[in-house]
UniProtKB/TrEMBL annotation, chains A, B:
<comment type="subunit">
    <text>Homodimer.</text>
</comment>
<keyword id="KW-0560">Oxidoreductase</keyword>
<keyword id="KW-0285">Flavoprotein</keyword>
<keyword id="KW-0597">Phosphoprotein</keyword>
<comment type="similarity">
    <text>Belongs to the NAD(P)H dehydrogenase (quinone) family.</text>
</comment>
<dbReference type="InterPro" id="IPR003680">
    <property type="entry name" value="Flavodoxin_fold"/>
</dbReference>
<dbReference type="GO" id="GO:0003955">
    <property type="term" value="F:NAD(P)H dehydrogenase (quinone) activity"/>
</dbReference>
<feature type="domain" description="Flavodoxin-like fold">
    <location>
        <begin position="17"/>
        <end position="155"/>
    </location>
</feature>
<dbReference type="GO" id="GO:0005829">
    <property type="term" value="C:cytosol"/>
</dbReference>
<dbReference type="GO" id="GO:0001512">
    <property type="term" value="F:dihydronicotinamide riboside quinone reductase activity"/>
</dbReference>
<comment type="function">
    <text>The enzyme apparently serves as a quinone reductase in connection with conjugation reactions of hydroquinones involved in detoxification pathways as well as in biosynthetic processes such as the vitamin K-dependent gamma-carboxylation of glutamate residues in prothrombin synthesis.</text>
</comment>
<protein>
    <recommendedName>
        <fullName>Ribosyldihydronicotinamide dehydrogenase [quinone]</fullName>
        <ecNumber>1.10.5.1</ecNumber>
    </recommendedName>
</protein>
<keyword id="KW-0862">Zinc</keyword>
<keyword id="KW-0479">Metal-binding</keyword>
<keyword id="KW-0963">Cytoplasm</keyword>
<dbReference type="Pfam" id="PF02525">
    <property type="entry name" value="Flavodoxin_2"/>
</dbReference>
<keyword id="KW-0274">FAD</keyword>
Length: 173, 173
């Protein structure tokens, strides 16, 4: 559609305005509908460079627009996607030891902060304990099967879990 | 080209093998050539969701492949892109106060960790002090001009700067 302000292009403002007038592209509207209807968002991905693969980051960038996911003074505990849960479930290349507090990669919680706090908490979405499978490439077939079984088991009682603490203390203490 | 292992597709292995046999797509080879020739990589972007916009994350995901940027036991101080410098220069939506240690977004250094440590340091690239313009949308025209002037000034003496400390202490202490 037309630009709200074609003299000074601002991506955030344009998507916000497009959202308000129902002018976002169809694929985004469909994704937003899925988010709106969901009680729980599970993001499953391989960790690439301490973060989500670009295609999933692009989903965050494009779908969670102002007006839909947050708004002026409506962020963090006041975010627009309240009463929803999220869960980051991912595999890593590095070992658990590398992602320990004394490990060379640094505590895995440092990796979780931008995703869990910076994105989900910002939108008002609560976060369940992340589900991390360390280095499935480098473990035995038996261990890989155990990882799948553990995930299957966890899914069965997921609805009974309480969200984790959203404060910086959870991540950096 | 053909897959190295078509029975169990592994993105990391395939790009690594493609790199070794010179089979990466042309655009990636060109980007890698630019990186190889550069002494300093400046990444300039608007901060989206505590991180790079997806298109820049995709550049990291696709260009910095194993064999080129790092290898088995060749990561962090042993990374393959040594003797290079990098600098993350970005604008934010949130104010400096929000990104202070006591701010609601949390210390801006938590945002820097995955990019500076998780990507650049992993590849052996040293990191200069980041250049951050906070909330240019919400400041006066005069302030915006000052931001540009400050950046111009900094660029003049950039080659005299020393890299920052790469340790977790820089980020989390």
């Amino acid at each position: 559609g037309h630009l709200h302000n074609s003299e000074a292009f601002n991506y955030g403002v344009e998507t916000w305005e497009a959202y308000k007038r129902g002018g976002l592209s169809k694929d985004l509207v469909e994704e937003q509908k899925k988010v709106q209807e969901a009680d729980l968002l599970i993001f499953q991905f391989p960790l690439f460079w301490f973060s989500m693969p670009a295609i999933l980051k692009g989903w965050m960038d494009r779908v969670l627009v102002q007006g839909f996911a947050y708004d002026l003074s409506k962020a963090y505990d006041g975010g627009l996607l309240q009463d929803k849960l999220s869960l980051f479930s991912f595999t890593t290349g590095g070992s658990q030891e590398m992602y320990s507090n004394e490990g060379i990669s640094g505590d895995i919680r440092y990796v979780l902060w931008p995703m869990q706090h910076g994105i989900m908490h910002f939108c008002g979405v609560k976060v369940l304990e992340p589900h991390i499978c360390y280095a499935p490439e480098n473990v035995s077939e038996e261990k890989r099967k155990e990882m799948l079984t553990a995930w299957t088991q966890r899914l069965k009682t997921l609805w009974k879990e309480e969200p984790i603490d959203c404060s910086p203390e959870w991540y950096f203490k």
